[in-house]
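Protein modeling request. Please complete all fields; requests missing the sequence field cannot be processed.
Requester role: graduate student
Desired output: 3D structure, token encoding
Chains: 1
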Amino acid sequence: MDTLTALPKNSPHPIQRLIIIALASLFIFYHVTMLSDFVRWHDQTSNALYNWVQAALRVGIIASLTLVVLGKRFALWTMWFSIGSLIVTHYWAHFGMVEADFTIGRHPLSYLKGLIMPSIVTMAFLYRGR
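Delivered output (130 residues):
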């Protein structure tokens, strides 16, 4: 048996795999840190519903990124849904529906920077083996 035929089709290039693991790990670490702040009641808004929605979305992001690292293609959809929903909650707070300190002095487009890392992870995941 040839080594090339033993490899799974469309296996990721080592550099792409490294990019996926590095960015996903960084993102997971960030959201775990934010969840630990939630548990310790630091940096909370006055709206309990908002805090719980954000915590649930962060759990979804952590779970989906873990599955992305494991190579599960469907996890990209859940990652994008969770991250997109988290960004929507930031706009929910920004436009005055929730009183939150992180919105003070921020431009509304600044929340879209949260799409940069998932875009890179998605490109590295989808364009593997080319």
